Amino acid sequence: LTRWIIFLLQTPSVTPSPPLVDPSAIPLKDEYALIISAASFCFAIAAFFRASFEQRRRIILDQILAEISALEELSVDIVKQVESILLTCRHSELSPDDSYVATQHEFRKAEVRLTNLEMILPREQDNIHRQYVDWHSALTHDRFPVLKIDHCYRISDERFVRVALAEAGWRRYLFNLRLRCLRNQIKFWKKK
Amino acid sequence: MISDQMRTTTINFVQDFTRFPGGRLIKYGPNSGEEFRERVLKPALAEYDQVTLDMNGVLGFPASFLDEVFGVLAGQLGREELKRKLKIILDNKVTLTEIEDVIATHTS
User: Which end is more exposed in chain B, N or C (fewer Cβ atoms within 10 Å of the end residue's Cβ)?
Assistant: First the structure.
């Protein structure tokens, strides 16, 4: 027992050492809280920008689709009028002159839509313009408006094929443009 | 005495010709491209060093009309000569592209 007591007395006492960290440092639990707060903040900011981007994308997309739809409807009307004039030298009950003026008005309406679409889609501007010009040239090629009954087309006239092909090409282009706009983001629509 | 001053003139399409251009040839109907080229544009180009053609105010131009006027003229005068002597004022980009197309087609 004596020896045991001496052993205990000789063993240095272990006193708790002070922590090595700076007393002003944030405790570990608070560090985690800070990181989580910062991450939440970043997520909130990202969500805000995402929502804002989506909202902008939606607005621009609606404009694009509205212009494309209007152009498609006008294209159908114009082709009907042009074919009617080519076949009968006039459109419905109108005189040849009035038929011409009425159809030119429709072309002007389409060109206003075209300008709008080109402004919203600057990256596609050249393509849209080119496709429209090709379509317009095909429809007004030869001698539109035909003013003399002798020069009207026959129903089997192969020149109608040119009108039909141009129309199919123009409508296919508008359809593909609509699809591409639906698939892509704003950065696709903007010019680099 | 030879004058160094350039002789210029301006043609207003609506006032000097028509608001409703027709088709390609005179035989197809009134206000044709052939009529405009022979009666209005060619004499002006022959008489003046530079001709300004104001085509605004027209509802639209048939492709055949443009081809007959500018395409045939470019074939006769040459592309550079036509561009040098003729200045076109037109807001409609579609028609301007069609004019460039017909000039390129007839001179290529």
Answer: N
Query: 3-class DSSP state for residue B3?
Result: coil
Sheet of B8-12, strands arranged across? B8-12, B50-54, B86-89
Q: A9: helix, coil or strand? A: helix
Which positions ≥6 away from A132 have C-beta within 8 Å?
A110, A111, A114, A170, B94
**Cβ neighbours of A49 (radius 10 Å):** 10
Q: 3-class DSSP state for residue A84? A: helix
Please tell me the predicted confidence (pLDDT) of residue B11.
96
To test the contact with chain A by mutation, choose from B19, B59, B91 the residue with the greatest count of A C-beta atoms within 10 A, namely B59
Q: Is the ipTM of this complex over 0.85?
A: no
At A159, list the tokens: 């020149």
- Our CA dihedral for A87, A92, A94, A98, rounded to 10 degrees, sits at -60
- Is A2 or B32 the better-scoring residue by pLDDT? B32
DSSP one-letter string for B12-37? EHHHHT-SS---SSGGG-SS-HHHII
Contact A38, A167 (CB under 8 A): no
Contact (CB<8Å) A133/B64: no
CB contact under 8 A, A111 and B24: no
B98: contact with A, CB 8 A cutoff: yes
For B94, which of A100, A105, A111 is closest by C-beta distance? Answer: A111
How high is the pLDDT of residue B20? 85
Handedness of CA A138, A161, A127, A74 (dihedral sign): positive
